[in-house]
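Structure first, sequence second, as always.
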């Protein structure tokens, strides 16, 4: 038995394949999904998503959104998602520094802008941790 996994962001379909299992970071902690899982809708947290297909494990950085498990189909609708091989550590570090500087210098920031910048910093941290773990 297998699962069909789709990971979609507002910009693009990031991943679509038939897999053996997936581990998704959620606000309640990591959940592992195998074929035959009960139907579930859960909130995705910033973190590392692991995809198992045969002997290969793929890693993706995700942030925000929802995961829906229905039958043997897993759909992840994420604010951001990127596969490990597409992460540019230098660009991520630069973006993280810019966001941290904006946070440090802002006195009275709009709450939505504050949340956006904090989200950028969290997502950048997830990407860097994922990239550095393999180095």
């Amino acid at each position: 038995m297998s699962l069909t996994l789709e990971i979609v962001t507002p910009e693009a379909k990031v991943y679509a394949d038939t897999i053996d299992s997936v581990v998704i970071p959620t606000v309640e902690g990591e959940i592992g999904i195998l074929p035959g899982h009960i139907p579930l809708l859960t909130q995705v947290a910033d973190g590392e998503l692991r995809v198992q297909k045969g002997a290969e494990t793929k890693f993706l950085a995700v942030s925000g959104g929802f995961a829906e498990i229905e039958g043997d189909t897993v759909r992840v609708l994420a604010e951001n998602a990127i596969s490990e091989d597409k992460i540019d550590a230098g660009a991520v570090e630069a973006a993280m520094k810019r966001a941290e500087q904006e946070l440090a210098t802002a006195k009275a920031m709009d709450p939505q802008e504050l949340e956006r910048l904090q989200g950028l910093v969290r997502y950048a941290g997830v990407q860097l941790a994922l990239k550095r773990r393999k180095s």
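Margin note: The mean pLDDT is 91.
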